[in-house]
Amino acid sequence: MVQRVLLASPRGYCAGVERAVEAVAQALDLYGTVYVRKEIVHNQHVVRDLQARGAVFVQDEQEAPAEATLVLSAHGVAPEVYERSAQLGHRTIDATCPLVTKVHVQARRFAAEGYQVVLIGHAGHEEVVGTMGEAPESITLVESVADAEALSFPEGAKLAYVTQTTLSVEETAEIIAVLRRRFPDIRSPKREDICYATSNRQWAVKEMLPQIQLLLVIGSKNSSNSNRLVDVARAGGIEAHLIEDAAAIEESWLEQVDTVGITSGASAPERLVEGVCDWFREHGVERIEQANIVDEHVEFRLPVELRRELSAREGA
User: Measured at the alpha carbon of residue 267, what is the angle toward residues 266 and 272, in degrees to the nearest 5?
Assistant: First the structure.
């Protein structure tokens, strides 16, 4: 029977997610109807909340009517998306996380300097699609150590690497080690690409593992960073499950479990954590404690398009 719940800290929203969600909210206040390309962040609750406020989610920028207000998601997009959106006369608000933008810029610069760029990431993820779009002829995707071992480039090719921001820290380090062994002159980013929030949340889970027998990760199935938290726990020998919310908890998981750890992905709102805590209270758990509290103080300003509009209206 569960006696205690430990809440990982940090958990939940990162600065990039807060910025993206607030961008849609502000755009709705300013313009009324707003279209959002893809999911603004990978969380179904967030998407449904914004839909209820009037946001219209589309899979492609061309689904938004000409001259509509279009918000681009936190995951970033390829240059061709901006081009098509401009052709349609959209009022485009770019909510790409600044840390993703940094990866785009680095990939573009490496390619412009004649490097073949190795992108460490997951095929099909929106962030990876956007990054590869910066220089498709110069970027090769690597998903695993096996992929890195199989890479082949012409003799004398200049090589560099960048990474998706939401990867497993340890798995990425293993891939980078292979790249450096095989290609000693490969260039790296000036700063690592895995974002602070991803690293911090994985670290918090690792620190908590000796105290728990089960980890529940609150997040959506298509959230890369949430899935990596599950992977971290399982790699440490602890059973872990990814859940959308409290309704997904299965009591059979809790048999012979004394302490449950709870964390949430970087796009999961805190109210979902509160809902899971309430579920445990309703099932007789009185000890709900914070573990490994680490404060994050990162903040990102709203997209420049919104700041200009807000400033103009304040001055009117």
Answer: 100
